[in-house]
Specification:
alpha+beta, 5-stranded mixed beta sheet, Nucleotidyltransferase, domain 5, flat, about 350 residues
Length: about 350
């Protein structure tokens, strides 16, 4: 915690994307000021935070018994209540101290499936870190605002947000979510698919970090014009020794295809459930992809094939949620309906 000096500090608005894979923070007038993995390292004896973000991620799987390095969010929901609180307080305090901010208004983009108890935990954590007011917004809505959709208009928009823990598809109109579905298949699940494929087909043990790099570098949802390749290192299951192998984009496609098609099916199902009046709007405007999964090569083309609709990748898709969270405070009177209320979305 830090001490405020009322003669030096100013009040500013802050937006936070509390993602499964990454946490991002935007500050009014500064843009995105923090982007790091959603990982926290905690001293088990004292309960104090040792590190967050990149430094904590390096500790995953490498800590002694008295240190716990964890991802506090899993599959789009808060898995470790205490660690999430500690991480939020630490990050917000760090940003406020660095940029001389006192008692900001904060909007937090929260994952699908968050319970009322978890809502209160997030709000209390941010308030304890020095916030004046806290608003919570569902990630698909924040992503739509961050992708520059005019969500307040009486017109249908559809957003497909493929994050680390969940894929969320939402139809939005008049500042509210008309219909939305969530699937716990997204970036993390695709990484796991690659780990399992490499184990099964190449007899090689690799970690999630290597799998993520493979996905980002040569991952695709449809065959590429040229079969790309990259060399990876892992542990040979037969000898137990380190080994280098070459993996191709066609193999990564095979590894991820089942999960990719589940995402495609979710989009199709959402479109089938969309009211006809909004369907015509969506046909005209197209489908917008956000989140890290939007960057998988040829995913937009695959969705065009299966929906017959135009598909566009949002500008800087990784940043859409945090930008949207920040934008809501710029026009809070117009967008006040986007904050979480008692209504719950459907889940499958």
């Amino acid at each position: 915690m830090f001490k405020f000096n009322p003669f030096k500090l100013v009040s500013k608005d802050i937006g936070i994307d509390l993602g499964t894979a990454n946490i991002l923070v935007t500050l009014k007038g500064k843009g995105i000021v923090l982007k790091e993995p959603s990982v926290v390292a905690i001293d088990k004896k004292t309960g104090n935070i040792l590190s967050t973000g990149f430094e904590a991620k390096e500790m995953l799987g490498r800590t002694p018994d008295d240190i716990s390095a964890v991802r506090p969010l899993k599959d789009g929901v808060i898995a470790d209540f205490t660690a999430t609180q500690l991480m939020l307080k630490n990050i917000l305090s760090k940003v406020c101290k660095k940029y001389n901010v006192a008692r900001p208004r904060v909007v937090v983009g929260v994952p699908f499936g968050i319970t009322e108890v978890e809502e209160r935990a997030v709000q209390e954590s941010v308030l304890q870190a020095g916030a004046r007011e806290v608003y919570l917004i569902e990630e698909p809505m924040a992503a739509a605002i961050g992708a520059n959709m005019d969500v307040a208009e009486p017109s249908g928009n559809i957003i497909v947000d493929i994050g680390g823990g969940t894929t969320e598809v939402a139809v939005i109109s008049l500042g509210g979510i008309v219909i939305s579905y969530s699937l716990r298949i997204a970036g993390d699940e695709l990484d796991e698919d690659i780990v399992n494929y490499v184990k099964r087909e190449l007899n090689l043990a690799i970690g999630e970090t290597t799998a993520e790099e493979i996905k980002k570098t040569i991952g695709c949802a449809k065959p590429l014009m040229t079969d790309m390749s990259m060399e990876i290192r892992g542990r040979d299951y037969a000898t137990g020794l380190p080994k280098n192998v070459t993996i191709y984009s066609s193999q990564v496609l095979e590894a991820m295809s089942e999960s990719i098609y589940k995402i495609v099916d979710l989009v199709k199902m959402t479109l089938e459930k969309t009211p006809p009046e909004l369907s015509s709007d969506i046909m005209e405007k197209g489908i917008i992809l956000a989140g890290g999964g939007a960057l998988i090569q040829n995913l937009d083309k695959l969705l065009v094939d299966y929906t017959g609709m135009p598909v566009y990748i949002a500008e800087n898709p990784l940043d859409c949620v945090v930008k949207g969270a920040g934008k809501t405070l710029d026009d809070i009177d117009k967008l006040k309906t986007v904050f979480i209320n008692s209504k719950r979305r459907k889940s499958i």
